[in-house]
Amino acid sequence: MVFRFAAVLMMALFGTGTVLADTAVPDGYKNADLLKGGQMYDNWQAFTHKKPQGTNPLYPAKGTFPQQSWSCNECHGWDYKGKDGLYSTGPHATGIIGIRAAAQKTPQEVFQALTQKNHDFSPYLKEQQLWNLVKFVREGQTDFAKVKRTDGSFTGLKSVGRAKYRMLCVRCHGNTGTLIDLDPDRDGHQGLGTSIENPARVMHKILWGLPGTEMPSLLINLQLKRMDGIDILTYVETLPPEITKNTKKERKKK
Ligand code: HEC
Ligand code: HEC
Fold this sequence. Notes:
Layout: H1 2-14, H2 18-23, H3 27-30, H4 34-43, H5 72-76, H6 107-115, E1 119-120, H7 127-139, H8 158-168, H9 170-173, E2 189-190, H10 192-195, H11 199-208, H12 226-236, E3 242-243, H13 248-253
Antiparallel strand pairs: 2-3
Helix pairs in contact: 4-7, 6-7, 8-12, 11-12
């Protein structure tokens, strides 16, 4: 009450609403870690020891990936558009709404969405971790329409992306993106070119880094811009999909 009174008084003095807006921001939101929020959207279970059991009750019974049904991205999509985006059709389609509109909601409203019945993550995540997700929902989303055009082409510059790729990614992924096998369970050696099957997913991972690995976040750890990530994605798109020689199968034969 004292705070509110102070805010009203300040507004009266300065004729601005900004002071009131600031006091309305909860401490949890002020202290929230955007990097962690971005990585939690990818895989929040990498940040907690308490894992949910069974299939998420909100996940459709006929869904293809019940084992992923607790991941934010599985329901809301890597383009954050849910049923109105890349997951409108195909095996990942769930009919669930996106979170683009939630970016305009207040921190309290988004927090409320993450703790309401059936969509309550508080048994698994600490309060501050929930605020990290709230911060990501409000401040971290990428408008995928600015990444990929409706004609399928990417908006970045391939040549610029190549230079940035050489600077930032080659040491781990190698010149052709195949140094790390991204899917050891799959036949052949899967390079970065394969991951482009889901470009919004790749975009998210480039921008936010990979939880539990050394892969840095372009936006936070490297302090670069979204456009840098889009250039890199545009280049990565042109890398070879996989290397078939020296596969596990072949190695087993020897
Ligand atoms: C099993 C699917 C599923 C998962 C996993 C899931 N959600 Fe949701 N989410 C929903 C559904 C369904 C709604 C709509 C609920 C409603 O309208 O009552 C929703 C609503 C929301 C909203 C409110 C959107 C709005 O505009 O009102 C936000 C924000 C949100 N989810 C964020 C997240 C985050 C962050 C995660 C990961 C911690 C997550 N969700 C995980 C299904 C899911
Ligand atoms: C410090 C090493 C390191 C750097 C630098 C790095 N990565 Fe990675 N990246 C990894 C590792 C390790 C994995 C595999 C993680 C796993 O699958 O366990 C990975 C995985 C990926 C994936 C696949 C993610 C998935 O799950 O589909 C993409 C895409 C990717 N990196 C792109 C990039 C790009 C682009 C850059 C440069 C901006 C980059 N990485 C920089 C280490 C790195």
